[in-house]
Amino acid sequence: MTETAAHTATTTTAPAGPAASAARTVPAGPAGGARAWLVWGIGVSVYFLAMFHRNGLGAAALEAQERFDAGPALLSMLPMLQLLVYVVLQVPTGLLADRVGPRVSLTAGAVLMAVGVALFAVAPSLGTAIAGRVLIGMGDAVTFLNVIRLAALWFPRSRYALVSGLTGVAGGIGQAASVAPLSFALHGLGWTGAFLAFSAVTLVMSLLVLLVVRDRPTGPLPAGTRPRVRALESIAEALRTRGPRLGMVHHAAIMPPYTTLGVLWGYPFLVEGVGFAPGVAGTLLSGIGAAVLWVSPLIGALAGRHPGVRRPLATTLASLFAVGWLAVVGWPGGLPPTGVVLAVLMVSAAGAVAAPALSFDFARDGLPAERTGVASGLVNMSGFLTTVVVTVAAGVVLETGAGFQAAFVPLTVTTALAGGALVTMLWRRPPRPVADG
């Protein structure tokens, strides 16, 4: 079977194991349609807000240092604890997504984020602020996996990469919107007013999820088509399937660089490292994030129709990332020229936005739609665990008085190593996507 034929097949070939028989009885995939886009649109709006809240501290980093009297290393713990909670909960929320469905999970996630943002808004001390960020991380952890799960349950397999790519676009918009708008809100409404306003918006979105979103087009699956596979068996099934393993390595290589910048260090890097004025730095981060949004749906559409393009696309991205970041940290005499820095940021932003279209499409290979939650959780965990490590490492290095070139060395090392592993896996044996319709 050719790769394209396998990608559009209507019967899943799953690995042998406790749930193997269920893979042969999963019904043909859904047709999509207007209602599918509406349900996904409400779900992805929650993801937009999750990305907004996740990256909002980047625009407020300097204000947070003054408000909580925290240095760079201590300040980095705020978003990193949030991301650590996110990482730790990826597999549990993947299991939850497979068992209770996206509607309940997304509603609970939005409520947790709203409460966390409100607590962060009124926090009188760093300890209370940390508690707020932990709640945001718990709500954030639920969102992306369930939006991806809605895509798997409401759209045919051939559109999964496209919808995943559009999900990445929504996240990219949320990430870009967290810089300039939040910066203006902080100056206009103050710390408490700005964050309370965004908390209220998130609470309204939780009500929309409850009213509009449904788990699947045709109601619950018939008895016997979705056996309760034990947690460890679900994890083992995903790990022994090549598709999820490729997705994990790809996400670890492509997602962390720009996420690290968006979460915390991009704004300080452009202001204190490169020398841009604060307003220019915020506009640049927002502009770069917005300028590359078209990449994700394009890659998603190509991968859906021509799955053979995934290998050269993933290889090219991994190579560009490694070369670009090696140039940033290894440029003799200090940071490279501004044009080189901006080019690396542009490529990193494009890769971060496009990552879902490839990483999670790889993760679908060999698994039916009903068991994508755990695989998606593992893929997400690989990218964000790497992000947590390199972002905290950057803060520790900066605390010693070293510059941003030294601070970004850990990020460059992990990007190059993961990229090398990805290229090796892809060219040793090309991926052969198999789908359930």
Automatic annotation (TrEMBL):
The keyword Isomerase does not apply. Keywords: Cell membrane, Membrane, Transmembrane, Transmembrane helix. Residues 39-432 form the Major facilitator superfamily (MFS) profile domain. The keyword Transmembrane helix applies. It is a multi-pass membrane protein. It is found in: Cell membrane. Residues 1-22 are annotated as: Disordered. It comes from the Bacteria. The chain crosses the membrane at residues 34-53, 73-97, 104-123, 129-148, 160-184, 190-213, 249-270, 276-301, 313-334, 340-362, 374-398, 404-427. SUPFAM superfamilies: MFS general substrate transporter. Its main location: membrane. It holds the Pfam family MFS_1. Gene3D superfamilies: MFS general substrate transporter like domains. PANTHER family: CHLORAMPHENICOL EFFLUX PUMP RV0191 (PTHR43124:SF3), PURINE EFFLUX PUMP PBUE (PTHR43124). This is Nitrate/nitrite transporter. It comes from Streptomonospora arabica. The lineage of its organism: Bacteria, Bacillati, Actinomycetota, Actinomycetes, Streptosporangiales.
